[in-house]
Amino acid sequence: MSTIRDIARLAGVSVSTASLALNDDRRVREETRRRVLAAAGTLDYHPMRAARSLSSGRTWSIHLLDPALGENMSSGFFTRFLRGLHDVARDGGYTLTLTVPEDEAESRAVLKRLIAERWSDGVVLMNPTEHDGALGDVVAAGFPHVLVGRSPVAGVSTIDNDNVRVAFDATASLLEAGRRAPLLLNGPRDRTFTQDRARGYLDACAAFGVFDAPVAYVDGLADATMRALAAHREAGRPLDALVTVSDPQAVVAMRALQEDGLRIPGDVAIIGMNNDDVTQFTNPRLSSVELNAYDLGRGAIETLLERIANGAGDAQRRIVPHTLVSRESCP
Question: Could you give the CA distance from residue 85 to residue 80 in angstroms, rounded to a whole number?
């Protein structure tokens, strides 16, 4: 295994100059830096991460922390989002790690240790609730962070879709086709993104003169979705349009309605969100909202690396655009 002394010897420089060149120190002349890098390439040199951390004062690790991660790991949205995180982290020389906490309390405890013990140089947070104490912790500590979602706490840097508009556009696509008995199958009530999507849905209904616009908050997936849908129908409520907060939720609802003999979209038009791969294999194929999860992941790490490099600074907010993807489940 080659060492930095071998590189210095081959490049004809001192060990300290070789070290500075490998760490891209501006005090090293460009010609010398190139000679050192060429020597490192020839010798297939790979610095020990521990040594790199000591010399730079960084861990070269970024942590992903999400109390709802276990619910989403199988979704196409999360796969694409994680790919975006990974690609930018890798290109910046960072390793991406993650924790799957049981709940928000455990998530906050992990974050406190991460900050106190400097497990990583920064953290990506996801799925906040309106009372998420972890957000105040990162702000108070001045710890580099980015939140994927809307923050109920001031001073938090975020990247997100415009979830109010996401739900407005999805709902409007059904109401424009003449549907007048909608239902929103939403996520847990205390998540900020579900609050925003409820608002967008209700705004769209009001814009089209539909004032009976029920919202069902679902905590879970298959069983909870089926119970919420059954409760709505058993109460005798009309239903000709269904907006769901995710595509897996839409697939469950579609199956339940079809088993009851309803036609889609003839009797009930359905639109999901996330544009997961599963949308191509339902019958009929599912309309959805493309949230550009890969771009969310890339943007999250880009924002975080900027904060790591330049210090906390003012909170940033980035919005990733969305698009409607129309398929056969909508008229």
Answer: 9
